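User: Once you have settled down, look closely at the record that follows, taking as long as you need, and be ready to discuss the fold:
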Amino acid sequence: MKDKEQRKIIHVDMDAFYAAVEQRDDPRLRGRPVIVGGPPASRGVVATASYEARRFGVHSAMPSAQAYRLCPHAVFVKPRFEVYRAVSQHIRAVLGRYSELIEPLSLDEAYLDVSISTACRGSATLIARDIKQAIRAATGLVASAGVSYNKFLAKLASDLDKPDGLAVITPAQGPDFVAALPVGRFHGIGRATERRLLALGIATGADLRARSRDELVGHFGKAGAWYHQLARGIDERPVEPDRARKSLGAETTFATDLDDPAEMLGQLRALAAEVATDLARRGLRGRTLTVKVRYADFESVTRSLSFAEPTATYADLEPRLAVLLARTEAGPRRVRLLGVTVSGFETAGRGQGLQLVLF
């Protein structure tokens, strides 16, 4: 076995983090559907939903009004960023007992490389179990953990048995696990790419593995090479401690080119809601908003504007989308891809603190 396959990677993911903190701190909320985010009468979006609310179909980045229609008896709670950040620091301190190689992805999830750790006799599975117990003892909250030989599979494993899960995917199990995996669950494959793959007859990892690298690159560019590796359970990305993120965004490619500016604006709003939710989870706010447009002939343009103060709220992003879209030729020219990105970050622990309410 090659050294890169001998890595021991743990992905730790807190279960319904914001909502769990609210239920921990307010006993009246325990066992009830809790939605953290903008109130239903606003243009807000859901930051996190408790598992009681998720049973009704509520999920992150969903418009609050839609969440209310699905679960009208839910309790809507304004986010308390300063509390979530403090709890996240306690969790980070727990993780630091087991490894120096920690890559935070957001306030509520992180990768650890425990390949050379001597804790728990060097067993990654025992370390993961110990981490879960230590987090609960320190914070009163529940975490799920996934263990595998690379980041791709460790992250998938952490989601297999939520909440309070612990799953392991060994090198021997990896290829078969990936083969049975729907392509929509592959890292970096969004809904639009999933539709394109399905249109090519590629529905699972096994289908993806049957295609050559050249064929996938021909259809998807550089991403095709990445898909080719993942289909074989290969992910050579190292755990990168305290990696500085320069931007955060979301984009989608359409199965049919768009020619209606109103529809384009609706798509941009959905992307902005997704980005705002992700910014909140990561405790980030940025100064620059960028809209990306790729026309039907594959020409791409970007249009940006900057805020006087850093922001992470959907309410700040949404009104600017129409302005930036109007600075392009979208409409007269058909559009195949749209994207929204926020950059110029300032962490939420600086300045006056982040107003996390997504409305």
